[in-house]
Amino acid sequence: MTQMAEAQAGGTASHVARWTSDYRPRPGIPDEFAGPDGPREGVSEGPCKGAWPRLLDRLGALSGAEITARFASAERHIRDTGISYRIYGDQREHAWPLSSLPLVIEGAEWRALSAGIVQRAGLMESIVSDIYGPGRMVSEGVLPAALVAGAPEFLRPLSGVTPPGGRWLKLYAADIGRGPDGRWRVLADRTQAPSGPGYALENRMVLTRAFPDLYADLHVERLAPFFQAFRDGLVMGAQRSDPRIGLLTSGPLSSTYVEQAALARYLGLLLVEGDDLVMQDGVLHVRTVSGLKRIDALWRRIDSDYLDPLELNPASRLGVSGVLEALRDGSLVVGNMPGSGILESGALGAYLPRIARYFLGTDLSLQGPKSWWCGDPESLAHVRDNLERLDLRPVATPTKGMGRDAILGPHAIVAERERVVAALRDRPFDYVAQEHAPLSTMPGWEPGPDGMRLVPRPFVLRVFAAATPDGWRVMPGGFCRISERPDVNPIEMRAGIKSADVWVLSDGPVEPVSLMHPGAPRVRRIAGHLPSRAADNLFWFGRYVERAEAVIRLVIAHLGSVGNAVIADMAGTESAPTALRIRALLDEWGAIEAPDLPTAKLAQEALSGRATYGSALSHSLSARHNAASLRERLSSEAWRALADLKDLLDLDEARDLAEAELLGLAERALGHIAALAGLAQENMNRTAGWHFVDLGRRIERAINTCSFAARFAGDEATAEDLGVMLSLCDSHVSFGARYMQGVAIDPVRDMVLLDPFNPRSVAFQIEAICRHLADLPALRVDGLPESHRRLAQKLAAEFTTAEASELDGAALARLENTFEGLADAIVTRYFPNGPHAMRPEKLVGLA
After folding, report:
1. 31-57, pLDDT tens digit by residue?
2. Which sign does the torsion angle of CA 639, 645, 647, 652 carry?
3. Is 785 helix (H, G, I), strand (E, B) or coil?
4. SS3 state of residue 606
């Protein structure tokens, strides 16, 4: 070994020794990293468990500064790309809390674990098929009838239904941890609508971006083949050879919406909500701007009960009537099938060993904690006699979120013994008891007196298995939740819980793969169909961005062109009327609370006011809200530009900026908006989505320019007014190059309203609008232009033949209203939603 290599090895050992010197697992609790006595000196010598020496040896070769920088880059990437989650009942988005260390598992151990997951997934498929099919388990006494008929997730309308393709489960997940004996065991089965695969994918992308060399050196198994196989499995049983798949979400307020959008983008699925869907002739369709298009397979991420309000929960607004009938007819594949949530019943675990021997003829290799259903008299007697040594949880509950997994441990049972005893006396069948065993632990980072150190923290690992044409396939990784505290159970994402990537280490190099079909797909240039809801959000995204720009330009005009003297002596300056008009327009647009504020206060409120609905910040937040519904369609660069704009404008209200500072801030904000516009022009494919983003911006710009001209280019406009008008339309340079003798009303009007070569003029906007509408699909069958196209053509003809001298205040006000009417006509035509939505005269292209 060379002297340099020796020094490097010594540095690695020093780093690792400092990180691990105080690492001690809790007594009696299995730990992923070390035995009960902690790690001995020299990780590379092999005292630590499994794959951890390989990870820490390579991590220790990096300097502390480099590790910190890489962790910071991961956090920055999460922020820039908007990876987030919501806590149930909380409408705020929380930045995704990714743990710096992955959970690492050796390939040999993972293969054994995967075999157990495959066995368990197959058993779950057999159980649910029997429950809704022949019912042999109940008739032969293997499973009590009350556990089936009394379960809230047992959906009677599904009895006797054979799933298209024969599969009830397309995706199975199991929450696992180490048992007291150190072996993996299943803590809960997830079959309703398992969440987490998208977050596992996001975790992988973020961490491998921060540590690409570490990822490659350790030969981490790739996730892409699993997702490709899962996508192929989703369409098993579809009637058409080239099926269309939708991912059904409850919408942006779903706690896992970001994950759902990421999966839709990665797998090429249509992200749809209930209002996007309609049944037509027994077939499910999605409303698009091109009419109704058939959906062949639906991956639901809503609970079963909400899927079909006609036959299930009549109060549901998340599903679509007629889905169950489509399942009976075989025209629709749904994963997972409604009713599969019954497999999550806690009481099923008490009978699972017996059921496994019934179906498999052997015991499960992955066992769960020993369980007792309190509806059985013998089990109830055992539970009453051993309350202080058991965990008690409800079999099922209609309460979402924590309620379904609420567990009373021994300490809680002792503290509430009277209530627990009363509950077991009155409704014992509502509860299941399990043997108590704290969660196993894995290493987490924590600041210490001498820098970062490793500490044991409880974790839960969710492993996924997909039903594919070749059988069950297990994701070589998973969704891991780790607590930041030693006494908090990470059963779901909430404050104090982080997520960790899961690295399964291969014995040798792993072939680089991506989500590409191994066959040779046909070359195609079909743009894909744009759901009406997505088009609506894209249209308003463009409008809100343009509104923010208009407010910012007004602020710049006020600060840069008018100046402080105007406010100091409003009555005695030539440009006072111009300042008053700017203030009046900001007040009319709701950007400020009052027009008589001091200049700096007014500018700060117009830019960053949270209480004012028309401030630039409010419009940027509205654009961000629309973008949140379009995560599967917007690039990470666009989301980053939005985040930068929001962060720039989101000022501390207690902080008072000077006018020069505000001017600089407003100019930087225009730069972010220009970046958004550039991304739309250069990065978005020229499909329907791009048309609607640009349509929104063009219509809003035309409306705003008419509004500007009515106030600053009227018949009585001063030179100051006209200068502001050119500034608001970013046309100073063009005007100066064309007219050398100074500003005049008609030349300014012509440039900002009628010049087809000026990208800021209204004439330019209407030409662009007409081109967009011509490229969008028409649904009329008589060949006549639709109403929105007729209106646009009338406007185009008027601007082609108009003269600048004719465009006085009254004409501009009328044109502004006409553009608003055009926007309404586009909304009515392309964004039908709800039970009374407009329907096209003919449903074209139902393919």
Report:
1. 999 875 555 444 433 357 778 888 888
2. negative
3. coil
4. helix
pTM for this prediction: 0.86
Q: Please give the Cα distance from 412 to 409 (Å, whole number).
A: 5
H or E element at residue 708:
helix 688-712
Token readout for 190 is: 């997830």
CB 289 within 8 A of CB 242: no
Q: Cβ(480)–Cβ(499) under 8 Å?
A: yes
CA dist 753 and 215 (Å) reads: 57
Residues 6+ apart with CB under 8 A from 227: 197, 201, 266, 267, 515
Rounded CA-CA distance 177/478 in Å is 13
- CA separation for the pair 595, 588 (Å, rounded): 9
Cα atoms found within 13 Å of the Cα of residue 226, Cβ hemisphere only: 22
CA distance 777 to 773: 8
pLDDT band per the 50, 70, 90 thresholds, residue 446: confident
Kindly report the number of other CB atoms within 10 A of residue 428's CB atom.
Answer: 17
Integer Cα distance of 126 and 138 in angstroms: 13
196-to-116, 227, 334 alpha-carbon distances in Å: 20, 13, 19
Q: Do you know the residue count of the chain?
A: 847
56: tokens are 């820490």
- 479, 462 contact by CB (below 8 A): yes
Q: Which H or E run includes 435?
A: strand 431-435
CA–CA distance, 145 with 56 (Å, rounded to integer): 52
> What one-letter code names the amino acid at 404?
R
Question: Which H helix or E strand runs over 640?
Answer: helix 636-649
Nearest to 346 by CA among 152, 201, 205: 152
Convert the pLDDT of each residue in 343-377 to its tens digit: 999 899 999 999 999 999 999 999 999 999 999 99
Please state the separation of Cα 419 from the chain's center in Å. Answer: 40
Question: What Cα–Cα distance (Å) separates residue 811 from each residue in 710, 757, 768?
Answer: 9, 22, 22
Nearest to 85 by CA among 616, 514, 479: 479
- Token code pair at residue 319: 């599903």
Closest CA to 696 of 526, 840, 839, 831: 831
How far apart CA 377 and CA 696 sit, in angstroms, is 66
Cα–Cα distance measured from residue 130 to residue 133, given in angstroms and rounded to the nearest whole number: 5
Among 480, 478, 483, residue whose Cα is nearest residue 497: 483
Q: Which amino acid is at 47?
A: P
What is the fold, at CATH topology level, of the domain defined by 370-435?
Dna Ligase; domain 1 (3.30.1490)
CA–CA separation, 228 and 208 (whole Å): 20
**Facing residues of 546 across strands?**
none
CA distance 412 to 391: 9
For 195-237, how does the pLDDT look when each residue is reduced to its tens digit (9 = 90+)?
Answer: 999 999 999 999 999 999 999 899 999 999 999 999 999 999 9
Q: For residue 176, which of 259, 257, 109 has the smallest C-alpha distance?
A: 109
DSSP-based helix, strand, coil % in the chain, nearest 5: 50, 15, 40
Query: Are 186 and 175 a contacting pair, CB within 8 Å?
Result: yes
All structural domains of the chain with their residue ranges: 370-435, 534-684, 686-833
Q: Within 10 Å of residue 351's Cβ, how many Cβ atoms?
A: 19
pLDDT in the model for residue 845: 34
As a whole number of angstroms, the distance between CA 555 and CA 579 comes to 10
Number of H-type helices and E-type strands within the chain: 29, 21
